[in-house]
Amino acid sequence: MQAGMREWIRRGKTRYAILAAAAVFLSACIFYIGAGGMTGQWKYQFQQALLRYSGEMYMPGLFYSSGSGNMGAGEWLKEKAMAWLPLAEYVEDHVPYEETIEDEETIAKILESQANDENMVDENGNLIGEPDESEKNTQAAPAADISIEKLRDFDYLLSNFYIVDSSTMIGPEQLNVDDLLSRSMKINTETDGPKVLIYHTHSQEEFKDSTPGNPSESIVGVGTYLTELLNAKGIETIHDTGVYDIIDGKLDRSNAYGKAEEAVRAILAENPSIEVVIDLHRDGVSADTHLVTEINGKPTAKIMFFNGLSRSRTNGDIEYLSNPYIQDNLAFSLQMKLACEENYPGLTRSIYLRAYRYNMHLMPKCLLVEAGAQTNSVEEMMNAMEVLSDVLSQVLTGK
After folding, report:
1. Are 136 and 290 within 8 A, CB to CB?
2. CA triplet 327, 166, 29: central angle to 5 degrees?
3. In terms of DSSP H, where are the helices of 59-103?
4. What pLDDT, on a 0 to 100 scale, did the predictor assign at position 118?
5. If you count Cβ atoms within 10 Å of the first and of the last residue's Cβ in the chain, which end, N or C, has fewer?
6. Distance in angstroms (rounded) separating the CA atoms of residues 254 and 260
């Protein structure tokens, strides 16, 4: 028995040493990527490969690898890891793994993170949606190059049109511009009934000169104006003014997305003609940031489109926040962004990509809009709706 115990301890030490060496190797790869040693598709492939092969090494019960073919970044990484660690295959085959799932507390924390998407900080400590210094002025930015040749360059597209939150990741297969631009966002104008629904998950958002407690001067009033503008353009639109972020008379966003989803589903069931769902917000930025530009001689709040990818950088796809319409959502926001760049350069900020879902799974044509911020005036917000309604009309009807 003592000999068997010694052998068990010896094998445990060996496995520990191998796993420790693997950690060093994988950490070195992560440092190399983060230090700018790799860009574009290979960077994305390495990120995916690191997640997968570290999982294979430490949690083999969760992973299955089948087949072989041309060596990509992932296979190259695995080959190098195996060369460094000749005993790793033994560990992969023999280390037991007890499968676990996310518990209710973990899911609750993730949903809370989704609910409090505004005023969150990025990896550099800056508020989400915080512009760089070049955006902190009222001058219209020069038009970006939106030629299809440039947009097909993944690095160019990502760096010029998107901000990817540190909580998630995206690759060239999802930002395939030919696919995203080929998806029609046109609505069927031949049928009767409303086509667009506008609502507000966070109905209590106000502006620097809003009268506290007056819905007409809050994000709800801004949504009312956008509804009127779209109806005037012949796009039948309804406006849900339901309140989802107040509980017992106090601001509470912890279940705002859940409550809004229930209400929106009921509205969609009653109005099957609806094809477009817009969740209209305003952003939260630092007190010295003024998201404004000048369009048609008017001070106009800047706009940001927002997408949830239902994917965590650390854990991969978030199955319990699944969204079958992610590609359609991405197509909608990109087509809106490009139409803005073509007709109103300087109006929009980069499209923001984050890990969660934000009720964008309710319909293919779902759009989450962050218009202006708490530092904008009501007038600047209303001016932004005039431009936004025009771009929506172009994308949805071609007019």
Report:
1. yes
2. 105
3. 73-84, 88-94
4. 47
5. N
6. 12
334: tokens are: 């990109």
**245, 166 Cβ separation under 8 angstroms:** no
Q: Report the C-alpha gap between 158 and 40 in whole angstroms.
A: 9
With tokens 């094809």, the residue in question is 275
pLDDT at 314: 87
pLDDT digits (tens, 9 = 90+) for 58-94: 444 444 444 444 555 555 555 554 444 443 333 333 3
Residue 267 one-letter amino acid: I
Decide which of 158 and 53 is more confident.
158
pTM comes to 0.71
Paired strand residues for 198: 239, 278
Encoded tokens for 256: 């705002």
How many Cα atoms within 13 Å fall on the side-chain side of residue 253? 16
Instruction: Sort 164 into a burial class: Cβ within 10 Å, 0-12 / 13-18 / 19+.
Output: buried
Q: How far apart are CA 281 and CA 244, in angstroms?
A: 13
